[in-house]
Amino acid sequence: MASKVAEKLLNAAVESFAADGFNGSTTKAISDRAECTEGSLFRLFGSKDKLFEAAVLKAFQTGRMPNEEFARILENDDNFERGLRKAMLEFYERLDDRYIRITTFAALDRPDSARDLLADTVPSRTLSHTIEREVYRGNLRDDIKPHTAALALTMSLWQFSLCSRVMASEFKTTSREAKRAAVKNFVEIWFRGMRKNTPKTPRKNR
Fold first, then answer.
1. Where in the chain is the domain with CATH 1.10.10.60?
2. 18, 21, 22: which is closest to 48 by C-alpha?
3. How many angstroms separate the CA atoms of 115 and 201, rounded?
4. pTM (2 decimals)?
5. In this structure, which topology does domain 63-194 adopt according to CATH?
6. CATH 1.10.357.10 location in the chain
7. Local structure of residue 35 (DSSP, 8 states)
8. What DSSP state is assigned to residue 140?
9. pLDDT of the residue at 1
10. According to CATH, what is the number of the domain 2-58?
11. Structure-model confidence comparison of residues 71 and 95, the more confident one
């Protein structure tokens, strides 16, 4: 019985925190939304802070593509650029609105805990390992840290995803074709910056 009440409170907390953030949500409003008592909320979660952390973690776990699946898409294509485009498109398409909103609030309200959670859940960690491999193979620049390079791409798409949800309807990227084109452009720009410069062969004097 307690687990069902906890699940109801957690789902209500995700909805509330995603809509209004930590400061804009009250334990009374969350418990009312869950049709539970505030006493149950504090008995099961201890505090509003602990409930917020649990809600953010739940949103992280359910509102995005799992890292294992992201890695599988990357590894199943022998062409790194093509595989990255597929993986990033799938990642972008599966971002849940509540996930986008609650992580934004978490970054503002609880930056330390948000950073720790994001470090383990966004695909930048998975991508950085693949970049290391491509650097070792001589396909990418070796003067940029793989994790920095991975963050540059994933955070660009993250910001684009967030902005596209708050834009006026006429500016939103809603069709699959538009999303595919946007992701393709982001990946291509990233590759232009990450490709190794091929040294020019000096011209022989004749």
1. 2-58
2. 22
3. 46
4. 0.71
5. Tetracycline Repressor; domain 2 (1.10.357)
6. 63-194
7. T
8. B
9. 45
10. 1.10.10.60
11. 71
The whole-angstrom separation of Cα 187 and Cα 156 is 10
Residue for token digits 């994933």?
154
Query: Which neighbouring-strand residues pair with 195?
Result: 140
Q: Which 8-state DSSP code applies to residue 167?
A: S
Token pair for 90: 């799938």
The two most distant CA atoms of the chain are separated, in Å, by 90
- The pair of structure tokens assigned to 181 is 């084109």
Beta bridge partners of 140: 195
Radius of gyration of the chain (CA): 21
* Digit-coded pLDDT (tens) for 111-149: 776 766 666 556 777 888 899 999 998 999 999 999 889
Residue 26's identity, in one-letter code, is: T
CA separation for the pair 199, 4 (Å, rounded)? 63
Mean pLDDT value of segment 76-91:
89
123-150 burial, b at 16+ Cβ within 10 Å, e below that, comes to: bbbbbbebbbebbeeeebeeeeebbebb
Answer yes or no: are the C-beta atoms of 65 and 91 closer than 8 Å.
Answer: yes
Distance CA 185, CA 191 (A): 10
